[in-house]
Amino acid sequence: MTDQPIPSIKLKPILVSACLLGLPTRYDGKTKRSQAVIDYLQRENLVPIPVCPEQLAGMTTPRDKTFFVCGDGYDVLADNGQVISAQVISEKGRPMNAVFCKGAKLVLQIARLSDCRHALFKERSPSCGVHEIYQEDERVPGVGVTTALLINAGLDVISEEDL
Question: What is the H or E stretch that residue 70 is in?
Answer without folding.
Answer: strand 66-70
